[in-house]
Write a structure and sequence with these properties.
- This protein is an alpha+beta fold.
- It has seven helices and 13 strands.
- Strands 6, 7, 8, 9, 10, 11, 12 and 13 form an eight-stranded mixed sheet that branches.
- The N terminus is likely disordered.
Length: 271
């Protein structure tokens, strides 16, 4: 691919066709954008019924040296229709979300994280732990990493149940929260664990997150039956729905969880 000054045109291959690309950003950022995993995954995932005649890159956000978000507009048609379809695209790729099912003394709880969400104007928005994928395809590993970063809990990735895979197989990548303009998909996992009362209380109010990434996270524990009305968040509600429907239809087994081991007694004082 050849690039020149800002606003110049180049081409990118989409479905075997050289599609002209113009850009409102520098040639360097344009190259990073169209070579990024978020752009390539979108272009390679288009069904044959789509025809893309042009793409305009409007903005690119970097996370360090990695492309995080690409905002663009495509001139697009479906089948042989003469009228364009809406072509605004916010490309950000996939993410993971983790639904906690915590068993404690015969009761069921879940875990939410509260953090600033500027787009909706909330400083302590409640949601299940989540994080962006890095393009590696290691969904369970990334989910386990996010759990540790956001809650301080270290788990084995094998403990996670992929609810979206159980529901959709390979038909869809995950749950799509905003398909009108965004390509984001979410792999939703279920994590089931038994905890003692002391462990549960120790999580409540725990402060976590990577400060250098602007993460200011507070952990909260809520009764599982109240989670749907505590967190008005698409991934939370979707994970709850998938868990319940998969269990109701026999596609998800929820065996009894062994109680958490009692803490060891304190050593007797020396005489």
């Amino acid at each position: 691919l050849a690039f020149s000054a800002c606003g110049a045109m180049t081409t990118v291959q989409i479905a075997g066709k050289a599609v002209p690309v113009t850009s409102d950003v520098s040639a360097e950022l344009t190259q990073l954008a169209i070579n990024s995993s978020v752009f390539r995954d979108w272009a390679n995932g288009l069904e044959p019924r789509f025809r893309i005649d042009a793409v305009r890159i409007q903005s690119v956000d970097l996370f360090g040296s990695r492309v995080g978000f690409v905002k663009c507009v495509a001139t697009a048609f479906v089948d042989n229709e003469e009228h364009k379809i809406p072509g605004i695209l916010f490309l950000r790729g996939g993410a993971v979300g983790i639904l906690f099912e915590i068993h404690c003394e015969g009761a069921l709880y879940s875990l939410v994280v509260r953090q600033p969400r500027l787009p909706v104007g909330r400083a302590l928005f409640p949601e299940i732990p989540a994080g962006m994928l890095d393009g590696s395809g290691a969904f369970k590993g990334m989910a386990a990493k996010e759990i540790e970063e956001e809650t301080g809990i270290t788990i084995n990735a094998a403990q996670l149940v992929d609810l979206t895979e159980l529901a959709y197989g390979d038909q869809y990548k995950g749950m799509y929260p905003s398909v009108g303009a965004c390509d984001e998909f979410m792999k939703l996992f279920l994590f089931r664990e038994a905890m003692t009362r002391a462990q549960l209380d120790g999580l409540r109010g725990h402060l976590s997150g990577l400060r250098e990434h602007g993460e200011y996270i507070t952990v909260d524990i809520v009764p599982f039956e109240d989670l749907w009305r505590v967190a008005p968040d698409a991934k939370t509600l979707s994970a709850l729905c998938l868990r319940d429907r998969l269990h109701a239809t026999g596609r998800l087994c929820l065996p009894a969880v062994a109680p958490a081991p009692a803490p060891a007694p304190a050593p007797a004082p020396a005489h």
